[in-house]
């Protein structure tokens, strides 16, 4: 949506250096920007691209404005400011109320008139869908779900049953919420299934990435609090509880009954074992996993960066001979 | 389904301490139980919740009964007993025979009259679907599949082709079975695809978690034996063979042509390389992976629990200087 | 498709030892081959199966022909030759032009008359679908996509929007391309979403495995070059660039804005951090991940093979006491 720099500056309380009547109609990287582009500079690693940018305007820190060859919108947090302004310049598509004739809605379901249900959508018994909800093609929402206003299910999402979601949730394709937890009891005749009868409760402003799975609780519910952000291909097991504004990058796995605090950050391919409690403000490094309760905020890690394979092979051999090295030191000490 | 404690005790050969006419109609955790709840105590970590429970009855070990404030159902394995009783109290929904008008069934497919096919289901040529099978919305079952009686496909499952499944299988949303294995031959012009012409054979009583993928065999079939349980987001590559009652937790990957024995257990984010053989009764710890044949039952591990990042950074530095340390010891020895 | 050995030999310029009129109509492993089977021997680990094979013909290296009890097709690269011949013997199903009545095509979309669209397919506004494209059941192709000739989407694939794909791409079930990248800016009020407005550009001859996700770019596009092969359950984050003929095995994750060179190979459960550049011809070992720019071709690793748990526990204890060991050596040195 075209908007003038003056209007953007006023709306978000930014100082503008440049022509307030200049208009931007798209966002671009510094490098690929053109005369209708809004761009931003938040990381010093892109600073060398600033002098050559052809953007209409750049959002940047006050101290970087001197190097800007174009209009500047000043902000102490250019990335967050860009996020806000980009949402104006490139708004999400608006919801067009209506139910596609190929969608199948159970008799006892209630769908708000302002919701949009796309081709092939299936809605189960007793499910309620709020105002302005977008349910993309192929999405299956099972029975006994409650979907808050302004939620968006892009396409081919599956909510199995008993899933409750707050307002403004955003769910990418392939997401599965409310499938059975992995509950099995060993017997002399092999595994028997432990019925998984809990639901899933998800707060407001939650976004879940493509092909991520959030299992239902075994008895009580699995809980995701407000503002949580989960990337693609993550696994949230039964009865996990994730605190507000915690974020998890792709291929992270949280095992059953673990409780994660608020504002935690899990890097890619990280995770935790089950049945532990992690306090607020914990950061877990890539490929690392927590194996016991964490009571102190901070960063936790345990991974080895890849090295040339010959270097690594030597290191591995040394590691395996540690016992012998210790013996040799003992001998020397005697 | 409401059922009296007396009937439960008789049906499963349990001793009951309490009123046999008392009725339970749901299952609950000890903490959240009410007067119609059946609960259980299997792990000592929940023992402190027992005295305050308001359940109608608790399944527990005989030695714990003294601390139960309510009726007790005695079992040496309360978790397995709970699994059995919960299946009675909270039965799975019954299959309602019929094919939704929006389902598309190939002419040469055969669907048992007792099966239920939900909206948007697609069934390919020559595929056979057994008695009481539930095929949830959006599920695609390709050509030349054979689906055993009482199987259940929750929703949005895909069987590509040539998949044979025994009775009572349970497949969660997003499961993909029979997609091409990862077979590529390098040539001077780049990769060329190796046709993947095998099928997948799955035994009875198998459960596969959401978004897990099981590839078809390259030439011979990929095989999953009876009673196997696989959690979400796992990868079973082409020509893998998994023995009876083996279980795998989420994000586990088994590479091509590997044979896994019976009753193995893979913890979360574990796996194996390809072309190895793993004997029966092997347990693999979380985040660990097997790199060669395993011939001895037991537990195998190789992972590092996350530590505070400064501790870890020091450890990593020490690890990298191991070669120098060895040199220093050698010098001392001289 | 039945074909004579003579025709195969001529077509691919192979020397044939045996009857040129003998016909093969299927492919088999050496062990399970019958009189209509074409088989191959590429790895020495299967050599002991050669003398007993009942195949009609075996593709093998000239030096192995002496041990073949049946007709031999000679090739210096039997695996690549098998790949080519198997594609003739077991051709992919041909595309049957037409749009199933249950498919929903947006008014402004253009679908080539030779394309086949299966039940439940949805095609968005302005999307173009090329000649001989197969779009399997339940596949959703969102707006503004361009699909090259001869592409194949097996079933239940989702392209969100702005995805451009070259000729002959092959996409397995559950693949999600073009979902939002994981872009969030932290503010005092929690995360705010950074709009993800880029697209995805995929070259020719690309194959993507089941349930893999490739996110759209944040601003500029995510790019996958010609001939790339990606296995199941992989994650390609926003603005990643993957060079020609690079291959990635399952559960590999490439973090945002990382550039990968040509002909790289990522083993299972490997990956990289974000914002790094990896040169051509890099191999990453299983479970290993790159944490900085790689400028030298070669193999990189950092993983520990699983060991019996007691051995591992001792190793872990020794590792943790490394600091103390170093102190002891220091003391000895004084």
Explain the layout of strands and helices.
The structure is a homotrimer of 334-residue chains.
Chain A lengths: L2 E2 H8 L2 E3 L5 E2 L1 E2 L9 E4 L16 E4 L10 E4 L3 H12 L8 E2 L4 E2 L4 E2 L4 E2 L4 E2 L4 E2 L4 E2 L4 E2 L4 E2 L4 E2 L4 E2 L3 E3 L4 E2 L4 E4 L4 E4 L2 E4 L6 E3 L4 E2 L4 E3 L6 E3 L4 E2 L4 E2 L4 E2 L4 E2 L4 E2 L4 E2 L4 E2 L4 E2 L4 E2 L3 E3 L4 E2 L7 E4 L5 E2 H12 L1 H12 L1
Parallel strand pairs in A: 4-5, 5-6, 6-7, 8-11, 9-12, 10-13, 11-14, 12-15, 13-16, 14-17, 15-18, 16-19, 17-20, 18-21, 19-24, 20-25, 21-26, 24-27, 25-28, 26-29, 27-30, 28-31, 29-32, 30-33, 31-34, 32-35, 33-36, 34-37, 35-38, 37-39
Antiparallel strand pairs in A: 1-3, 2-7, 22-23
Q: Concise description?
A:
The structure is a homotrimer of 334-residue chains. Chain A is of the alpha/beta class.
Overview of this protein structure:
3 copies of one chain form a homotrimer. The first copy, chain A, has 334 residues and is an alpha/beta fold. Among the domains of chain A are: 3-89, MurE/MurF, N-terminal domain (Udp-n-acetylmuramoylalanyl-d-glutamate--2,6- Diaminopimelate Ligase, Chain: A, domain 1); 157-300, UDP N-Acetylglucosamine Acyltransferase, domain 1, CATH 2.160.10.10. Chain A contains 4 helices and 40 strands. In chain A, strands 8-11-14-17-20-25-28-31-34-37-39 form an 11-stranded parallel sheet, with no helix packed on it. In chain A, strands 9-12-15-18-21-26-29-32-35-38 form a 10-stranded parallel sheet, with no helix packed on it. A 9-stranded parallel sheet of chain A has the order 10-13-16-19-24-27-30-33-36, with no helix packed on it. In chain A, a hairpin with a 2-residue loop joins strand 22 and strand 23. The longest helix of chain A has 12 residues, at 78-89. Chain A is flat and about 80 Å long. At the A-C interface, strand 4, helix 2, strand 40, helix 3 and helix 4 of A face strand 22, strand 23, strand 38, strand 39 and helix 3 of C.
């Amino acid at each position: 949506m075209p908007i003038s720099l003056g209007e953007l500056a006023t709306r978000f309380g930014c100082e503008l250096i440049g022509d307030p009547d200049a208009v931007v109609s798209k966002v671009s990287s510094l490098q690929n920007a053109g005369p209708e582009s809004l761009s931003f500079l938040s990381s010093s690693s892109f600073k060398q691209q600033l002098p050559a940018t052809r953007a209409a305007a750049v959002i940047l820190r006050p101290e970087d404005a001197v190097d800007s060859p174009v209009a500047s919108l000043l902000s102490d947090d250019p990335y967050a400011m860009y996020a806000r302004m980009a949402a104006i310049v490139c708004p999400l598509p608006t919801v067009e109320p209506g139910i596609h004739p190929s969608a199948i809605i159970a008799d006892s379901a209630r769908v708000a008139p302002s919701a949009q249900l796309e081709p092939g959508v299936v809605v189960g018994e007793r499910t309620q869908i709020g105002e302005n909800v977008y349910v993309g093609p192929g999405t299956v929402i099972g029975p006994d779900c409650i979907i808050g206003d302004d939620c968006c299910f892009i396409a081919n999402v599956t909510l199995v049953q008993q899933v409750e979601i707050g307002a403004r949730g955003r769910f990418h394709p392939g997401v599965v919420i409310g499938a059975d937890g992995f509950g099995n009891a060993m017997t002399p005749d092999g595994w028997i299934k432990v019925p998984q009868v809990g639901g899933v409760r998800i707060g407001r402003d939650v976004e879940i990435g493509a092909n991520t799975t959030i299992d239902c609780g075994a008895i009580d519910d699995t809980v995701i609090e407000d503002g949580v952000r989960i990337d693609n291909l993550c696994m949230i097991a039964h009865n996990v509880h994730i605190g507000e504004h915690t974020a998890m990058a792709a291929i992270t796995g949280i095992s059953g009954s673990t409780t994660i605090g608020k504002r935690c950050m899990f890097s890619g391919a990280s995770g935790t074992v089950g049945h532990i409690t992690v306090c607020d403000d914990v950061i877990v490094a890539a490929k690392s996993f927590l194996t016991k309760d964490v009571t102190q905020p901070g960063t936790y890690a345990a991974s080895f960066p890849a090295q040339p394979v010959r270097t690594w092979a030597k290191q591995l051999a040394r590691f395996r001979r540690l016992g012998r090295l210790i013996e040799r030191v003992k001998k020397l000490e005697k």
